[in-house]
Specification:
Chain lengths: ~270, ~160
């Protein structure tokens, strides 16, 4: 295309935030980095289901949910990067494992399909409440990203809830598998709702994760009960994702996510 | 809108959604605003879904269309707030979607809920006797349904 025009964007999307004069305050950037990492890591895990899900429609569903999360990650990482003159790609591809802030739940290997559904149910209910609260953030950019995300995440909650009911109330075997899936991921739930120093430092721009727990407790145990399943009684893990302590499976996942960008730095297509 | 802005709008409004080529960005409600500052033209668009890759193509197409129409300096801004909703889709857009074989989105009520009515109408035979095959379809904005009468599968543009 031969024309002299150029695209300049100055509003609130991944491409545009970077070009604008909008710069995230340091504390807000640090907070957004953690949220962006959560979305990026879970998006990558969901992408691993494509061609591997139990049916074609589920490949598409998990791929679509992952695409929404990738959109959130791009907005959040781009905004965080404005504080340090870094792009979304710098942050996604050129940080090492301890520099990531993702919660360990999102890093867990996909495992059985039921474990993915359990993880996704927990994640979606958590994101829905987080983004609902964050849409009244004192930071206008975070508020706009969250207001857009919450509409998408509500749809994700439905998807996981339907599978939970279908598997929990299906056959004796599907019930057992679904219970095992819940048991496998439940130790990682507690970490989502612990005090987060980055959220505390960002003040009114952030949401204190401890305040998200009541909404979670009002939703997920009820759904588990409706599906005829038991809320697992397992000890929580030590956690530490926000301070760079990650699940064993995270390193190999990150290597796969980053290998192409690191082999060909700056490549475009 | 001034006459000059209307002229810019009319050119930008010819750009179509690369995934649903019967819909223009005006029909979709993605085209939000145009403004002219001296020689610079600014077009505001809003993405449908956060991760929708079509927005990049639409943005490039707006620049191309306006360049071809003689505008030298074009700026395309993407705005996230207020968040896009299918309620911004024009009635022409809804009609074109149905004609193309995609069931148009149901409108929201004032309290934000969506009437499902008797069912999603099959865009092929008009039957309301349809069922959802999958809540997720070929793009972020669509779900997959099938008609129980004519047996044809079809896309439903999700109310969002």
């Amino acid at each position: 295309m031969n024309h002299s025009n150029h695209v300049v964007s100055t509003a609130i999307t991944p491409e545009s935030i970077a070009d604008s004069s909008l710069i995230a305050p340091e504390t807000v950037a640090q907070y957004a980095l953690g949220l962006g990492d959560d979305a990026l890591v879970l998006a990558h895990r969901l992408g691993e289901w494509i061609t591997n899900a139990p049916e074609l429609e589920e490949d598409v569903a998990l791929g679509n949910i992952g695409l929404d999360l990738l959109g959130h990650a791009r907005s959040l990482l781009t905004y965080a990067g404005t504080a340090w003159d870094k792009t979304e790609d710098d942050l996604a591809y050129f940080r090492d494992e301890p520099e990531f802030r993702s919660h360990q739940l999102f890093e867990q290997p996909n495992g059985d399909f039921t474990a993915t559904i359990a993880r996704q149910l927990i994640a979606s209910v958590y994101f829905a409440q987080l983004y609902r609260e964050l849409s009244s953030s004192a930071d206008a950019t975070l508020a706009a990203i969250a207001a857009k995300a919450v509409k998408e995440v509500d749809y994700h909650v439905d998807h996981s809830a339907q599978w939970l009911l279908r598997l929990g109330l299906g056959t004796e075997y599907s019930h057992q598998r679904m219970q095992a899936g819940l048991d496998a991921v439940w130790p990682f739930v507690d970490e989502l709702f612990r005090e987060d120093p980055f959220a505390a430092a960002a003040g009114d721009a952030a949401v204190d994760p401890r305040t998200l727990r009541p909404a979670f407790e009002a939703t997920v145990p009820r759904l588990i009960g409706e599906a005829g399943l038991e809320v697992p009684t397992v000890a929580p893990t030590r956690g530490g994702g926000r301070s760079g302590v990650h699940a064993e499976a995270f390193g190999p996942m990150l290597a796969e996510l980053q290998v192409l960008a690191r082999a060909h730095p700056g490549a475009t297509w | 809108m001034t006459r000059d802005e209307q002229a810019v709008w009319d050119v930008a409004a010819t750009v179509v959604d690369p995934e649903v080529p019967v819909l223009t960005i005006e029909d979709l409600g993605v085209l939000r605003r145009v403004s002219i500052d001296d020689t610079q033209v600014t077009v505001d668009i809003t993405p449908t879904y956060s991760g929708c890759p079509a927005i990049d193509a639409m943005r490039d197409d707006i620049v191309s269309a306006l360049s071809a129409a003689g505008y030298a300096e074009v700026r395309v801004r993407q705005v996230l707030a207020p968040a896009w909703t299918t309620d911004w889709m024009s009635s022409e857009g809804r009609a074109k979607l149905e004609e193309f074989g995609i069931a148009p989105p149901a409108p929201h009520n004032s309290d934000g809920s969506v009437n499902l009515g008797l069912g999603i109408r099959c865009p092929h035979c008009g039957s309301l006797h349809t069922r959802q095959l999958s809540r997720f379809g070929s793009t972020s904005c669509k779900a997959l349904h099938v008609c129980q009468r004519c047996q044809e599968p079809f896309d439903y543009f999700k109310a969002h």
